[in-house]
Design goal:
Elements lengths: L2 H16 L3 H8 L3 H9 L6 H10 L17
Helix pairs in contact: 2-3
Length: 74
């Protein structure tokens, strides 16, 4: 599983937890439900900007960070 796959899965879960349908969020974003579905299933690109918009509609904040790998020094 890639980071993109993880992000898609995370967002789909956030939609469910917020009680929002893909179609409802798509309308709010000004895109088709089909395109929304394609972004969440990997058939269309999902940019971080779109991911952030989707997360915000779910009442969430998309946070990206980094951390030191085990055995490495900062």
């Amino acid at each position: 599983m890639t980071l993109q796959d993880d992000l898609r899965s995370l967002l789909a879960g956030e939609l469910r937890a917020a009680g929002l349908s893909q179609a409802e969020v798509a309308r709010k974003l000004g895109i088709t439900a089909k395109h929304m579905s394609h972004m969440l299933t990997g058939r269309a690109p999902l940019s971080l900007a779109w991911a952030d918009e989707i997360a915000a509609l779910c009442g969430r904040e998309l946070v990206i960070g980094s951390r030191v790998l085990p055995g490495e020094t900062p």
